[in-house]
Amino acid sequence: MNRTDDLGFHHRFVEGEPSGDGVTLLLLHGTGGDESDLIPLGQALAPRAAMLSPRGRVLENGMPRFFHRLAEGVFDQIDLREQTDKLVQFIEGAAKAYHLRKDRIVAVGYSNGANIASSVLLTHPSLLAAAVLFRPMVPFSPSKTLDLRDAKVFIAAGNRDTIVSPQETSRLVEIFENSGAVVTTFWHNGGHELGQDDLDAAERWVSEWREAQ
Ligand code: MLT
Fold it and tell me: 72, 84, 116, 133: which to mutate for ligand 1, most atoms within 8 A of CB?
């Protein structure tokens, strides 16, 4: 396992096994998390895949995030755009440095990490093969129609989430579907925190995605 601050982000990289089919999970933590947070979750979803786990570059009261916000759910759009571009450069750089298959990069994000993953999908539609988004929000409404026909998206939402309303989840699903992405939505009977059922559903979805490759 590598732990480094190269490539513009503190990050951890865990090499995949040959039987991991060249899949890399790009793990994107929530507010206050770090590069170690989602490694166990990634290993539960795809035990033999490589794990690439950056730490968000922005601090909010000492808590790492992937972009600034002005208030809960109100994003600093200029910073979001800048940080999205930085993350994209990181992904490109890491793909070269660690010899990753660029057509097998799957984002797995929670909350703030899911939001930047959506922003990557909506600004660089061909970069990610798939995305597993736990409790995502709409990062911004795209001004033009995108071509996300090659992207597969899994969204796990909480029907009693006080941070992300069901309407917001539906809006995000609609944005992805209008761009041609195939979206699977899982509803957890609870709030913003993840339950075992979220993880089980995501694991099934990742296995099915891999079988279909
Ligand atoms: C965000 O700021 O990205 C969302 O409000 C989720 C979070 O609380 O991190």
Answer: 72
